[in-house]
Amino acid sequence: MIIFRSQGAVFSHRFSPHQQLGVNFSRVIKAFIIFRDEPGGPSAYFDKLSDFTNIFGSAVYITQTLLGDGFVVSYRSAQFRYARIQCEV
């Protein structure tokens, strides 16, 4: 778990890129090894958007993007406020 501290707020980032990589790797294994002989083959497996691993992988990606963007915005706004105060003095 990574914790970011900025302006008294604490951002906890529980979803790492490794989790998303693991979910995608498990989908590839399922598609090309487990479901290779199913009708339609691996492409039919990847077309199932309601599969739990697809939904979970998308949720992890969206969560890490929002947390990362929020951290960058708060960090840059704190830098801007500090630089502006420093110039006025």
Helices and strands, with pairings:
Blueprint: E1 2-6, E2 9-13, H1 17-34, H2 41-47, H3 52-88
Walk me through the structure.
The chain has about 90 residues and is mostly helical. It has one domain. It is about 70% helix and about 10% strand. It has helices at about 15-35, 40-45, 50-89; strands at about 1-5, 10-15. A two-stranded antiparallel ribbon has the order 1-2. It starts with a strand and ends with a helix.
Would you tell me the overall average pLDDT?
77
**Domains, number:** 1
Coarse structural class: mainly alpha
User: H/E order of the elements?
Assistant: EEHHH
Share of β-strand residues: 5-15%
The number of helical segments is 3
Number of strands: 2
Spatial sequence of strands, sheet with the most strands: 1-2
Sheet with the most strands? 2 strands, antiparallel
What keywords describe this structure?
89 residues, mainly alpha, two-stranded antiparallel ribbon, 70% helix
Report a brief summary of the structure.
The protein is mainly alpha-helical and 89 residues long.
